[in-house]
Amino acid sequence: MPDSNKNQDKPAPATPLNPRQRGIIVGASGGIGAALSRKLAREGFSLALVDRNKTALQSLCDEINKNAGETRALIYEHDITKYDSIPDTLRRVIADLGGVDTLVYIAGVIHFPALDEFNFPEDYKMVQVNLLGAMAWMSAIAPLFQNAKSGQIVGVSSVAGDRGRIGNPGYNASKAGLTNYLEGLRNRLTRHGVNVLTVKPGMVKTDMLKLPGAPKPVLAVEPEQIADLIWDGMKKRKQTIYVAGIWKWIMLVIRHIPSFVFRRLNF
Amino acid sequence: MNITKNFTQLENFGHSLNAPAYLLTVNIPEEIHAAFDLAKKMGITVTARGAGRSYNDAALNGGGIVLDMCGMNAITRWDKSTGLITAQSGATLEQIWQKVEPDGWWPPVVSGTMKTTLGGCLSANIHGKNNFKMGPFGEHVIEFDVILPTGAELTCSPNKNGDLFHSIISGLGMLGIITSVTLQMKRMYSGLLSVDAFPVKNLHEHLSALQDGAPNYDYIVGWLDGLAGGSSLGRGQIHATRYLHEGEDPNPCETMKIEKQTLPPYIFGVFPKSMLHYFMAPFMNNLGVWGVNTAKYIASLRKHTFRQSHAAFHFLLDYVPGWEFSYGKTGLIQYQSFLPKESAESAWTEILRLSHKLSLPAYLGVTKRHRPDNFLLTHAVDGFSLAMDFKVTNNNRARLGKMLQEFDKIVLQAGGRFYFAKNSETSAETAQAFYGEETIEKFKKLKNRCDPNGLLESDLYRRIFG
Ligand SMILES: Cc1cc2nc3c(=O)[nH]c(=O)nc-3n(C[C@H](O)[C@H](O)[C@H](O)COP(=O)(O)OP(=O)(O)OC[C@H]3O[C@@H](n4cnc5c(N)ncnc54)[C@H](O)[C@@H]3O)c2cc1C
Ligand SMILES: NC(=O)c1ccc[n+]([C@@H]2O[C@H](COP(=O)([O-])OP(=O)(O)OC[C@H]3O[C@@H](n4cnc5c(N)ncnc54)[C@H](OP(=O)(O)O)[C@@H]3O)[C@@H](O)[C@H]2O)c1
Description:
Largest interface: A-B, 26 and 37 residues
Mean pLDDT of chain A: 95
Structural class of chain A: alpha/beta
Radius of gyration of chain A: 18 Å
CATH superfamily of chain A: NAD(P)-binding Rossmann-like Domain
Distance between the termini of chain A: 46 Å
Low-confidence stretches of chain A: none
Strand content of chain A: 5-15%
Largest sheet of chain B: 8 strands, antiparallel
CATH topology of chain A: Rossmann fold
Number of domains of chain B: 3
Mean pLDDT of chain B: 95
Bound molecules: flavin-adenine dinucleotide, NADP nicotinamide-adenine-dinucleotide phosphate
Helix content of chain A: 40-55%
Strand order of the largest sheet of chain B: 17-12-14-13-19-20-18-21
Distance between the termini of chain B: 29 Å
Shape of chain A: globular
Oligomer: heterodimer
CATH architecture of the largest domain in chain B: 2-Layer Sandwich
Strand content of chain B: 15-25%
Helix content of chain B: 25-40%
Shape of chain B: globular
């Protein structure tokens, strides 16, 4: 059996007067993931919280259900790099939720290398979680949404995917790959009534920015604010959003810095 | 087997609820066994679906397997001398009446739409406008074949597997999957019915007319103006209808032809009826319905008698294909309560008043006269039913939901029942309260026996028994 917790109470079935959106959040117990989970639960979603850290998942889930006064969230302990288990976990989740309308892929890892450090094992991990995990989850759910002619896929990429920078080629590549994959998915699925939303956060005050080697926060915002902006993008069925919005303009400039200048910069 | 490509968005009839599921088509009974095996392997559940005419979650199973039974629809035997017909469970009432009518027969019980399948009719144990006289659909079933989730194949009749006969009929598809049904048809002496139409000024007159009229007619049904208040609360129009006796119709062979039953596809000769619902949509608000209802009531003030074909009398709604779309994107729900004749008037007075107070009137109200039956999950009472259609909007959902909870309390208090082909909001507590402990116990025992692994589950099942 897939890595689910069989004894959880299921959310109440949807009825016409108590409709429920059903969402899966992969990477739910992280900084942005937890904030978005709380937000979507408040918006009335039934949620499957997927992550590898069971204790963190459980306390998030308990908190959400307690605040809602009923079961809104279920937890699924899952290591994304166990790609083979994804179709089974997905099937279980969809049966437990009574369907699915939204997949949010938000899991990610980062290693901040020194400027002269080349670290393939760390790069490999980043590609495994940031890109391959997203591809594995999305390619499991895409055909379902495509056939149902509805649904939304949200991928949390990063402004870091917009350019390859001196600081972190591996992370940049993993996010550039994800951004590109999401674009391709969008071009495939929009015609089937499925929305694909690419989220590009700037800096967000989560544990990620507390890792060794992390840069000084610039324009960093709280994960709750990011969650509100993501929900807004989901509601409006946007295609790409920079969060916070200021990063749209910053990245517009950065994307246009010519290579001969970019090569000489230290960020 | 990869069933990813079968993942399909399914809806209730009112387009107010969706639940995606793996939709598998059943053409032969073996495919039902295969579906149970697959469900077991995948750790998910199965629900049968007929024509999907239930207003609620009865034929939905979000994230599970839904079996589309419509493909298994052959009429396998028809004996015009005895009126016995055998058909596969996906056959519709439309197929059945069109088969038997030209030979001088008619289904003894039909729903307000002819699109329903035999499987759906047995599982909900549907009632017609003659419930007070002919009982529910199940009373005209001679026998049926069923496949249980255990894999057992059984034939059930009142004498053979009688407990399953009386519980699978009315069992909301939760005990087994019906594959074939044998029914007794009723003899007719004309393709026409004689209809007496007359107005009733208020709820008291309305219910008295149903009760006093029923013994003198074969069918009786009321239209209730959900918007009229004050001294006109519960006003409407009664259609009391009888079969023509032998000899009354000089040319029964002619009137029983199928083409004499069906209406033309155009209204006034030019206007395609498939487009009619677009023109109804602008009236689907409190003011529009008030106007339409008032005009309808005034037109009904003239008491009159007319002849109408069986199909036109029973399946009026089918003549506006897609009428449910006129309720807009967020659809509609139906709330149907069944009340004992002693308490009906006061309970519905309270209910109608509450709907007016909250500005959430029913856009369509239909009343019928009923009698009890002995099927396990029966919805019938010695009394009346009132079906109310409500438009659902993003703005009224929460208020409507609260109001229906109040309705449920009033109905329970008055000793009433609910119908799970219709009611979409009734909770487990309410359901168990009106079924009663003994019935629930009996049902659970049967469920255990027929389905020890819990493979047959619908969204409705999880709502009221989960
Ligand atoms: C316009 C309209 C008018 C109506 N008028 C009436 C009326 O006058 N009286 C009345 O009683 N009802 C009425 N109904 C309700 C309708 O008759 C019931 O909902 C009926 O069950 C629908 O049949 P279906 O084939 O569409 O079944 P579905 O809605 O597809 O399924 C209904 C139930 O039957 C089960 N089921 C279906 N096939 C099988 C099978 N082969 N084996 C086991 N279980 C099965 C399903 O699991 C589900 O629980 C009306 C509905 C509409 C839309
Ligand atoms: N914070 C920022 O400034 C920032 C900026 C741009 C983009 N982003 C992106 O936003 C997303 C969320 O970031 P965050 O800041 O919220 O980081 P976070 O707090 O570290 O959250 C990431 C989550 O992913 C989970 N995860 C990692 N590897 C996994 C695996 N193999 N299996 C299952 N779960 C795994 C983590 O679980 P564990 O806790 O067990 O590791 C954690 O819960 C990431 O994709 C990140 O790249 C963040």
